[in-house]
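Subgroup meeting minutes
Present: P.N., E.W., G.H.
Scribe: E.W.

1. P.N. recapped why we're keeping a running log of single-chain structure predictions: easier to compare across weeks, and new members can see raw inputs and outputs side by side.
2. G.H. added today's entry (230 aa).
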Amino acid sequence: MDTPSSAQSDAIGRARYKLRQAELALHHLRQGPAEIALDMRRARTPSNPDIRLDTFFFASLGLCKSAYYIIENDQGRRYKDAIHSWRMNVLDIPGRTHFNRMMNLRDIDVHQGRSDGKTLGAMIPIERSSDDDAWMHQQQTNYAALGIRPTATEHKNPDGSTVSSYDGLQSSFCLYIEIAGKTWEASKACERFIAQLNQLLDSVAAANVPPLSLLQRLWLWFRTKLRIQE
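Output recorded in log:
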């Protein structure tokens, strides 16, 4: 899909494009801990892990909110009822809590300049693909030749999730946020938020709301002008 032009009338298509951009930012957020861990393995002090993680977290959130507002404000809010129905009838209470929290987090960042999240130490699986880590391969025991079943290394991260790997774990940093008293790793929270918005777009598309007539659009424009003058 090409970049939508300003004249493109398909609001759902423009919103889906924003979510694709949000997924790209999410991809970079997921890669952040591995890049930080690589710096630590090479005995380099991680340079501002907070800004590295915050940047992609809020980039993803901002693009998600853009997708939502494209739908909400399209043609005099013609999807208003469809959006309200989705929020009240499709989302359960925990889902609405998550959705509202993610919407508010971006506002806190924009208007107050704070992330309302914490960058905490975490463990992630060791990745063996880098040529710089060739020496680590040489130290691995050949369990198959010895007839021994390897033991996985496990660790519980700040969000309560258990990470495990037969190749071992390495130290890094991850961004965590609180939602209704539960700690979420930021990329997992973003992943759920994007899934919710994709579900919203599917629901709006299925509602098949007809475009507003010219008379309706003129009336909405007139009402807007009256509010501005007041």
